[in-house]
Write a structure and sequence with these properties.
12 helices, about 50% helix
Length: about 270
């Protein structure tokens, strides 16, 4: 796909994820001047323009002038947006959706035939370069289009390519996943305080523990089951704690929670 457009990237939606994408794309080596952003909130655009040096334009101009159109709007706003601008998008552009639950087939209904549409499920750790994103291609997207999206996201963390039928499972796993861990951290901090630690000390110990455990998991060849066993002495303190988890069916609870997230993602489509 030749780049004959004014901007390499147009970001439609300047919320938390929109900003995370802007940051990641610049870190990937794209010049700020190659990126334009659009949002209904003028004050938000002013903040991002000052922070990153991107161009600011109307939604219509951002779409018509950009090779890669990143849709980072709320799922419930997607259809209205595409109803207004979808038919103006040409087949030498890419439409890349970051909206949970929105299928490429639904996006393609608003586009001209032949316009490549792709779907990405990111997560918020993208904002600090350790995100997890899954990419799926629509009816007209090619492997070249997938590679172009991977290039845009290469500084955001890890990316995988999945069949679109698995995107709701991805949403329940990595898309919503950070919130699961944040909630667990909140609970551990509260538990430490119940045992007598100050809020400050509890926070330090819990966050460092989670960070250290994550670093160990990222070591080549690591296995979470083996790492758990290495910490768990027979009838020791860790064993006693894990028995409480098992008694409460921790794995079943997590599976039910992830199933609920998957089901909600399907409803949003």
């Amino acid at each position: 796909m030749e780049n004959s457009f004014k901007y390499r990237v147009g970001v439609i939606g300047a919320g938390i994820m929109g900003e995370a994408l802007i940051s990641a794309i610049i870190k990937a080596g794209f010049a700020a001047g190659e990126i334009t952003i659009s949002d209904k909130r003028v004050e938000r655009l002013d903040v991002l323009k000052s922070k990153y040096g991107c161009a600011v334009s109307s939604t219509e101009d951002a779409i018509s002038d950009s090779q890669n159109i990143l849709l980072v709007v709320k799922p419930q706003d997607m259809d209205d947006l595409l109803a207004k601008v979808g038919r103006s998008i040409s087949s030498d552009q890419r439409v890349i959706s970051f909206a949970a639950g929105k299928k490429t087939s639904g996006i393609e209904n608003h586009l001209k035939e032949g316009v490549p549409a792709l779907r990405v499920m990111p997560n918020t750790p993208m904002s600090v370069g350790v995100g997890a994103s899954a990419i799926s291609k629509g009816k007209y997207a090619t492997d070249e289009d997938v590679e172009a999206v991977q290039e845009l996201l290469k500084a955001s963390g890890e990316t995988i390519v999945v069949d679109e039928s698995l995107q709701d499972a991805v949403t329940a796993t990595s898309g919503s996943g950070p919130a699961y861990f944040f909630r667990f951290v909140e609970a551990m901090i509260a538990g430490a305080q119940d045992l007598g630690l100050s809020e400050s000390d509890a926070r330090t110990l819990v966050i460092q523990t989670i960070s250290g455990a994550s670093a160990m998991l990222n070591q080549e060849g690591s296995d979470p089951g083996v790492l758990r066993q290495n910490v768990t002495s027979p009838n020791g303190t860790t064993y006693a704690a894990l028995q409480v988890f098992e008694g409460g069916d921790l794995e079943g609870l997590i599976k039910r929670a992830m199933r609920a997230a998957r089901d909600r993602s399907q409803e949003l489509s």
